[in-house]
Amino acid sequence: MKRIHLYITVLALAGSLSCTKYVDTPLPKNELVSGLVFTDDKTATAAMVGLYSDMNSFNYFYANVLMNYLTAMQADDLYYLAAFANYDVFRNNTLLPNSQYVQSMWRDQYAYIFHANACIEGLTQAQALSQSVKDQLLGEAYFMRAFLHFYLVNMYGDVPLITTTNTTVNNVMPRTKATLVYDQIIKDLLEAKKLMADNYPSANRVRPNKAAATGLLARVYLYNKQWAAAEAEAGLVLNNSQYALLKDLNTVFLANSKEAIWQLQPVNVAGGRNTWEGFTSTPATAVAQPAFRLDTINLIKKFEAGDLRLANWTGWRKTTTGATVYFPWKYKIRTNATGVTTVTEYSMVMRLAEQYLIRAEARIQQDKLADGRADLDSIRVRAGLTKLDASLDKAALLLAVEQERKVELFVEWGHRWFDLKRTNRANAVLGPLKAPNWQTTDTLYPIPSDARRTNIYLDQNDGYK
């Protein structure tokens, strides 16, 4: 039988994990062989869910600081207190092909894609699994392959489309046109929707279900200007009784909140940590200065008066000069109080508010202005703001969408940066802010030099040649 190697961190698969974690079945620490892994439901499940643990095991990994904080620096949300070269290149638009995190995000995502492909191949061959488990796991693997390719194509543009574990093929794969990558993403998500269940496959919302695939499909359709399809898919999630906007903004990012579509469960909680996001952004004491700071002019001052998101999702400190600085505070816990071991916050990957914003934009683009405005008002009223003026025209409502996405989704999974790119607003917004370093090609990362050394068929993005 074909050997499929899945490199998974010890933390993800150690037998000490309880049944409240992703998986409670111990597996080999370095590699899994398909003949052993896919012969029963427990070990097959462990093979798939190890990917989620791997994504978020340590700080400055793809699924925490890298995708939330560095992409926010690329936009106009965030900056770092001190001069630090690995961060400054994102803030200042001085990225190079050998920039550390440009390379690690590429490398990590392709490693996770390999993991997903190995699961797809192993599960497809498996004969001994229960059908419901096999379908759910296959759906998760297709979902993850789509999810990762979505982020790669939005960060790097044309990227190799990898759908196999055949390294002989993969190592010489040229870049695939972004339109073809999106075609595969949609295909994978439609397959995931067919295979996955409506209910979550575990007690927590830490493994994707059908709604996660539906919600990501809505986002993909929006990015591709397929307005009717985006509206329809977002509507399916919004009409699902498992989800609701929470009135108390301080409960949104709690574990298993009703607004969560998909979260990552913390697996490295030594020292009382919950999420790496909370540990990284929340100051250590009541007087300590935050390391990551929200942009006062370009974000904080963009909140309307009385916006509860400013009051509840940002923290602040006074500096020695008397200035007020703000930090991301969607996650409240840096570390638990002494003796407290319960983890109460999970890392949010997808949540319901985005689906309202997707449907609002899709409806407005189809000239369904009243319906789109109603979706925006759902978000605004939850934030303590008044409803939008009914006289706003299409152009004004689209700017209102941009505004609500900015103040709702700040420092979350690259939304602001991607929004500016996909709506052709990056030059107008980021050009003056990041001058003199800004050039239009800065909307994409360079193809990493390490990748080009090992694959001579990868050409470089404009602006980095």
What does this structure look like?
This protein is mainly α and 465 residues long. It has a single domain (10-261, 348-428, 438-454), classed as Serine Threonine Protein Phosphatase 5, Tetratricopeptide repeat (Alpha Horseshoe), CATH 1.25.40.390. It is 48% helix and 6% strand. The chain has helices spanning 10-13, 34-37, 41-55, 62-74, 85-91, 100-125, 131-156, 167-170, 178-195, 210-223, 227-238, 276-281, 308-313, 352-365, 369-382, 394-408, 415-422, 426-434, 449-454, and strands at 78-80, 260-264, 292-294, 314-318, 324-328, 347-351. It has a two-stranded antiparallel ribbon with strand order 1-3. Helix 3 (41-55) packs parallel to helix 7 (131-156), helix 10 packs parallel to helix 14 and helix 11 packs antiparallel against helix 14. The longest helix has 26 residues, at 100-125.
Strand order of the largest sheet: 1-3
Q: Briefly note the CATH topology name.
A: Serine Threonine Protein Phosphatase 5, Tetratricopeptide repeat
Order of helices and strands: HHHHEHHHHHHHEHEHEEEHHHHHH
Percentage of residues in strands:
5-15%
**Radius of gyration (Å):** 22 Å
Number of helices: 19
The global form is: globular
End-to-end separation: 44 Å
